Every structure is written in C-alpha cells, then in structure tokens.
C-alpha cells in the first residue's frame, strides 16, 4: 500500500527498531541512503546497510538477515516485482520500499500489511483499480450450488425448468468470468508493458527530512545529486526534470536565506549551494574546455565530431567565439580570467548559430573552500565511475563503499579519483561511438537497431557494467540519428550487446527506447526480452533491477535475437 | 665486567617498545643475584681482612664492589618496576582478563600483584557514581555519541549484542551499533569506524 504520511507511517514506526537497509547500486539510491543514514544517526536508530546489485543479491541478503530484523527498507529495488512471492518472508516482516522503478507491481500496491510503498501517488502511476484485477472466486460457485440444493427440494414437475435456468445461469457466469479474465489480462498487459522511472528516491527522503525539520545542506546536496543522476542517465523526461529542479530550487533558496550580509558573512569553508544555468559540457571545470566539448554527448553529436567536417566545424566554432586554441586546450582552472568571465554567454550565443539551442541546462553547483567547486553532474559522473570501476580484485560491494564515501565532503581525494575515472570512461565512450559509426557497426534488424561490441574492442571491459553500457547506448543512438540519412531508422529503438565475462561466455544486453525530442522514456524491452528468452529457452539471467538489462550466454545470442525480431515485428 | 647482566635486563625491556611485556627473565635475574652474592661475599672477606690486618689498599676494591652492588640493585628494581607499570597499562587497555600469551610472560609474584591491582581498581570504580559504579576503563575521553557507524572489513559471522539481538557481520556491510560493543572488534580489526 502507499504511505500517505511518511513521518507517522514510516519514520516513527522504525524509530525504535532495528532496521535493515538494502540499497541498490545506482547513484540515486546511494544519495537516498546517505540522507537516511544521517537521519538515523540523529535519532540513534540502529541499522545495518547491505549493498545489493540484483535480484539474487537481494534474496541472499534477505535470507541472511531475516531472522535478525523485522523491518526492511529497500531503496531503488523491489517495487516492480511481486516481492512477497520472491522472498517468501514471515508474516511479521514489514518492507518499506522507496523505488523509482515503475510500474509498481499490483500485488505490492494492494497488499495492506507487509508492503509499504514510500512513493508519491502522482498522476503517472496509473494503477488499475482493485476490482479489475482481484476478485473473490468462491462467491459465484457457492451461491450456485446453494440455489441448486434449494431447488432440488421442489416438486419434480417444475424441476426441468428450474434446472435449465440453473444451467443457463451457470453458463452465463462462466462466460462472464472468462470475459473478466480476458479483460484483466489486457489491463495488466497494458499496465506492465512499459518500464519507466518516477520521482527520485533521494528527493523522497529529503522531503522526509524536511518534514522532520532535520534537513541540512548536505542532505539537500545529495537530493540534488540523486535528481541529476536521473537526468544524466536519461531516466526521466525533461519536463519532470525541470519540475523537480524547481522544487529543489525552493529548498535551496530557503537554505540560502541565512542572512549573508556584510557583518555576518559565512566562512568561505561553509558549504554553499547555488542555482546555475550552466553549460551542458560534461566535467568542463575539471578538464580543459576543448576536451570537454569533444567528449560531451550533446556537442559531439551536434558537430558530428567523428567526421573531418565535424572537426572543422569545431575549429570554426572556437574561432567564432574568439577563443585561442592554446587557451582552450589548457586546464580550465588555468584559463585566462578574461575568457572565463563571460564564457557561458559567449558559448550560448555561438552555439545558437550552430544549431545547438539547449547548450545550457538548469542545475546546481556547490562550493566550499577556495578550491572546491563542483556541479551536480560532475559528482554524478565521478561517483558512477567509482561505482562501476573495473579494477581487478574489487568486488561490487567494495566499489559501493568507495562510491558511498566519495559523496561525503571529507573524502575529496576519492572524489577526484572518481573524476579521473569518469574522464577515462567518457573518452572511451566517444572513441567507441566514433568507431561504431565509422565502421557501420549498427545494423537495422527491422523493428530495432542492433550493435554488438566485439571482444577485442579497446576499453570493452568498461562496458561490461550496466550503467556504462546504457550510457554508451544512448550516446550511440543520438550519434546514429545525427549521422544516418534513413528517415525510418531515426525512429527505431536500439539494442546493444557487449561481452560481460569472457570466461563464463556471457554477454550483457541492453535495450533503449527510440530517440526523440518529446520521448517519454518508456522502455518496452523488459517484457520483450523475457518473452524472447522464454520462447527460445535461451539461458538468460534477468538479474538487474532494470528489466531492460539482461545477461545472456554468447552461444544463444543469435537465436535470442531472431526471436526478438519476430516478436517485435 | 660487573653489572653487565643487569644492564642486559634493562636493555631487553628497552627493546620492547609499545608497552609489550617480554617473558620474565628468570635466568637473568638469578645470574644478577648470584653476581651480587659473589660480590658481597668478596666484600665481606675483604672488609674483615682490612679490619683485622689493617690493609688499607683493599678499600678501593671494596668501594668498587659496593658500587657494583648498588648498581645491580638499582637495575633490578628498575626492571621489576617497569614490568609492573607495563602490566598496569595492560589492565587499562585489555580489561581484567589478559590474553594467554601475556599471562605466560608473567611470573607468579607478578600474577599475584596483578590480581591485587585488579581488585583495588575494581573496588575504586565501584565506589564512584554514587554507589552504582562507573567503568573508567571504557572510554579514555568522554564519548561524543552512544552509537557509532562501523564498516565490516572481513566476514566475521554472527555477533550478539546486549539485548540478545544477533547481527550478521558480512564484508562491506555497514552497521550503526552501540559504541562499547564495537570497541573490542575495532581493536581486533574486524570493524572499522566510519567518520563521515
């Protein structure tokens, strides 16, 4: 069931108990987890934090901890599957789920005792009504047989007529039941067909903190990072992002209202969050401007930097703005102050001429101390790179801990190492995109586009991780849409496969919806993958919380693909 | 050379930095005591001879032997006292039950001294706090909070805390637990205090 009063029905229930926190591996979940941890520290709620990467991890963690804990809080996992059936908990276990994955499974919505959903009941949920899906089966049968026994005592002369009536009624009831079941299947199919994302979990927990008046600037910053993560990884629509930014902006102005006048100015070391209408150039303040323009998806795709023409256009663009090449290739911090002052406006003006109307995006930045200035998207990229780093001897939970640490202000060196990893990742993505487009690796299979990264591709190890592969997929699709002339292909979704584990012979497959200006980011590949796997009995693992990312055995790749093509045409 | 054995004992203690307690050097002690006895006998003989026969040239050697005896005595008492101080520090660090290897290194008298010290410390601590008692050995500085956040560095299995609840300590899981329960495990290196 949905929780309406998050303070009374969630926080006050767990405040005197020991809680198990099961947290998924994405940045929004990490930020939400940090906010909740700080709240628990304030009120001395004992908890245990366990990172989980997929459904199997979740089940294992639950089995290990189910004897010791009664209350479980699941962050960014568990809403889109029938949780009670999967975990088989005891009757007194209670699950609080704060998940951005939609659609929420109907069993989770209508279970009143054990599942509590910390989700806003927005308009976009569209949960089917109770009567359309659930129905008490015994009623029809019981009344039917009751009537029969009553009528059995009637004199035999009238019996035949009554019997016919009873038989007719029974046939009628059965037909109604079949109709109802067919309608139920249709409703459920429509409801569960598309997968998408809702309000960020970190915003939910920040609002809980706000209601408890225990919110701090750190928590606000984490909420902003969680929201930005949804935008960077293309999980929410632009409209929703702008709406949520406006909500966050209200909180930011409330926090900044702390009278900073001449006499009582805050120390430079204090944390200040500010609203920025900043450039869409990834990590540009920690890199050189030139590198950032080359490696950001938006600029790279608009200029078509994998072609010679594109490179020339870039040089023209820089010349148009009057930025000398030497300056632009230097580290951003070392650029001349005179150039840095009006940089944003100058770039916006020039990019309008080159057809890039949205080079600026609304976001937030933080600064504390003289040196430390970060935009929310910088933090997202750094933390994602740490979370999915492919160093040897580091398990998923080691990376989780490192990424969690990098979100604290006191672990700046970890954050900087994350930024370096993110730079490498972005460069690898751009090079892979360039090579895929130039060698025409993307093939149209009819209902969708398909691309397979061979094992020898440079940096292919980076793309064995789901979020990195999804990012590559999105950039590749945008680049493809810019570079192809086939009008029909521009509207197709993309399925991408990359080797995941060479020893075990598995590949990771990702499907993303088609690229369009007004895309609603709804992804149907989850169900499609399931059906294709079933019909060909391919050995797949649907372990990721996002159902559109699966693992598949390399040998089954071709038959799986054929099944998918037949299914979707 | 005289007094070398005694200085050897001192050097042995000096080598063990960090408050560790080396094994009780029974042999060394006995050798020093033997040396002292030998010196004393020689001195006695010489003193008697000097007094009886009036031989003044024996006085310097008597003086030398006397100094050696004093030096030996000083070294021995320093050795024994330093060991007692180390044992006292161990009580504050480890608690009233010392690890077996440390107890192995103590001689019988030291064990006796230790139990007496324990008793007097315990009765002192019991007398504080208005008759309720206060365990002074827990926190050297006043703690900032009752609960601390710890991260598990290796798989340790199940761990029980005061109210009977059991926690599973798995690698890389984080927990928020009462401070006193975690100190032992932090010292063993199983848990790590997370300061954010």
UniProtKB/TrEMBL annotation, chain A:
From the Swiss-Prot or TrEMBL record, state where the protein is found. Nucleus
Q: Where is this region: Disordered?
A: 136-164
Which residue intervals are annotated with compositional bias (Acidic residues) in the record? 136-153
- Keywords (A to Z) from UniProt: Cell cycle, DNA replication, Nucleus
Write down the superkingdom of origin. Eukaryota
Kindly give the Pfam families that the UniProt entry links to this protein.
CDC45 (PF02724)
Gene Ontology biological-process entries? DNA replication initiation; double-strand break repair via break-induced replication; mitotic DNA replication preinitiation complex assembly
State the coiled-coil residue ranges: none
Q: What are its GO cellular component terms?
A: DNA replication preinitiation complex
Q: Name one GO molecular function term.
A: chromatin binding
- Identify its protein family: Belongs to the CDC45 family.
The name on file for this protein is CDC45 cell division cycle 45 homolog (S. cerevisiae)
Q: What organism is the protein native to?
A: Cyclopterus lumpus
From TrEMBL, chain B:
Q: Could you tell me which SUPFAM superfamilies the record lists for this protein?
A: GINS helical bundle-like
Top-level taxon of origin:
Eukaryota
Q: Which Pfam families match?
A: PSF1_C, Sld5
**UniProt keyword annotations, A-Z:** Chromosome, DNA replication, Nucleus
The UniProt record lists the DNA replication complex GINS protein PSF1 C-terminal domain at 144-195
Q: Which Gene3D superfamilies match?
A: 1.20.58.1030
* Main subcellular location: nucleus
The processes (GO biological process) annotated in the record are: DNA strand elongation involved in mitotic DNA replication
Q: Which GO terms describe its cellular component?
A: GINS complex
According to its UniProt entry, the function of this protein is described as:
Required for correct functioning of the GINS complex, a complex that plays an essential role in the initiation of DNA replication, and progression of DNA replication forks. GINS complex seems to bind preferentially to single-stranded DNA.
Subunit and partners: Component of the GINS complex.
Q: Can you tell me which family this protein belongs to?
A: Belongs to the GINS1/PSF1 family.
**Protein name per Swiss-Prot or TrEMBL:** DNA replication complex GINS protein PSF1
Query: What is the gene name?
Result: gins1
């Amino acid at each position: 069931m949905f929780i309406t009063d998050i303070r009374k029905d969630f926080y006050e229930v767990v405040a005197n108990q020991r809680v198990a926190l099961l947290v998924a591996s994405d940045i929004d979940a990490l930020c939400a987890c940090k906010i909740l941890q700080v709240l628990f520290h304030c009120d001395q709620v004992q908890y245990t934090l366990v990172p989980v990467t997929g459904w199997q991890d979740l089940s294992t963690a639950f089995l290990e901890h189910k004897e010791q804990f009664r209350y479980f809080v699941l962050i960014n996992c568990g809403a889109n599957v029938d949780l009670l059936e999967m975990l088989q908990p005891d009757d007194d276990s209670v699950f609080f789920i704060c998940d951005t994955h939609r659609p929420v499974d109907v069993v989770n919505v209508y279970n009143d005792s054990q599942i509590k959903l910390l989700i806003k009941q927005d308009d976009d949920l569209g949960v089917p009504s109770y009567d359309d899906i659930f129905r008490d089966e015994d009623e029809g049968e019981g009344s039917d047989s009751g009537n029969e026994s009553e009528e059995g005592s009637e004199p035999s002369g009238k019996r035949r007529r009554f019997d016919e009536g009873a038989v007719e009624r029974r046939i009628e009831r059965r037909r109604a039941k079949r109709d109802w079941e067919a309608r139920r299947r249709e409703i459920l199919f429509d409801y569960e067909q598309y997968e998408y994302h809702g309000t960020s979990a970190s915003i939910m927990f920040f609002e809980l903190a706000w209601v408890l008046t225990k919110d701090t600037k750190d928590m606000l910053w984490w909420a902003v990072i969680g929201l930005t993560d949804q935008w960077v990884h293309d999980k929410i629509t632009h409209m929703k992002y702008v709406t949520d930014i406006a909500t966050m902006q209200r909180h930011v102005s409330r926090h900044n209202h702390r009278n900073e006048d001449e006499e009582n100015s805050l120390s430079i070391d204090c944390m200040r969050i500010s609203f920025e209408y900043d450039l869409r150039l990834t990590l540009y303040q920690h890199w050189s401007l030139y590198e950032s323009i080359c490696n950001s998806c938006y600029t790279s795709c608009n200029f078509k930097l994998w072609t010679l023409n594109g490179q020339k256009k870039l040089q023209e663009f820089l010349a148009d703005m009057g930025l000398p090449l030497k300056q632009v290739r230097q580290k951003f911090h070392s650029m001349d102050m005179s150039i840095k002052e009006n940089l944003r406006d100058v770039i916006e003006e020039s990019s309008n001429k080159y057809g890039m109307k949205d080079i600026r995006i609304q976001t937030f930045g933080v600064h504390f101390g003289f040196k430390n200035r970060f935009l929310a998207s910088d933090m997202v990229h750094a933390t994602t790179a740490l979370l999915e780093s492919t160093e040897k001897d580091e398990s998923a939970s080691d990376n989780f801990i490192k990424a969690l640490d990098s979100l604290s202000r006191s672990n700046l060196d970890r954050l900087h190492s994350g930024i370096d990893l993110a730079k490498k990742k972005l460069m690898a993505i751009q090079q892979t995109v360039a090579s895929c487009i130039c060698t025409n690796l993307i093939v149209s299979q009819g209902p969708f586009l398909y691309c397979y990264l061979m094992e020898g591709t440079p940096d292919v190890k980076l793309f064995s991780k789901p979020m990195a592969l999804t990012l590559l997929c999105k950039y590749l699709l945008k680049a493809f849409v810019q570079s192809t002339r086939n009008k029909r292909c521009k509207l197709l979704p993309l399925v991408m496969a990359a080797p995941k584990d060479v020893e075990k012979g598995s590949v990771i497959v990702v499907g993303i919806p088609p690229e369009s200006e007004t895309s609603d980011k709804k992804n149907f590949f989850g169900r499609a993958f399931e059906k294709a796997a079933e019909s060909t009995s391919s050995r797949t693992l649907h372990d990721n919380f996002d159902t559109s990312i699966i693992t598949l055995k390399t040998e089954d790749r071709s038959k799986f693909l054929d099944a998918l093509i037949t299914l979707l045409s | 050379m005289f007094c070398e054995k005694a200085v050897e004992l001192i050097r042995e203690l000096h080598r063990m930095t960090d408050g560790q307690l080396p094994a009780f050097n029974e042999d060394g002690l006995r050798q020093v005591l033997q040396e002292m006895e030998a010196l004393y006998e020689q001195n006695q003989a010489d003193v008697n001879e000097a007094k009886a026969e009036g031989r003044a040239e024996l006085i310097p050697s008597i003086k030398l032997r006397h100094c050696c005896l004093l030096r030996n005595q000083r070294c021995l008492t320093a050795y024994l006292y330093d060991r007692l101080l180390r044992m006292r520090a161990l009580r504050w660090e480890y608690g009233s039950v010392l690890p077996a290897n440390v107890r192995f290194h103590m001689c019988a008298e030291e064990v006796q001294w230790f139990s007496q010290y324990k008793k007097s410390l315990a009765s002192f601590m019991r007398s504080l706090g208005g008759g309720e008692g206060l365990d002074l050995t827990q926190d050297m500085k006043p703690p900032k909070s009752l609960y601390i956040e710890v991260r598990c560095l290796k798989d340790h299995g199940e761990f029980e805390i005061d109210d009977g609840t059991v926690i599973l300590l798995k690698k890389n899981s984080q927990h928020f637990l009462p401070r006193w329960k975690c100190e032992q495990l932090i010292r063993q290196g199983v848990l790590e205090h997370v300061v954010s």
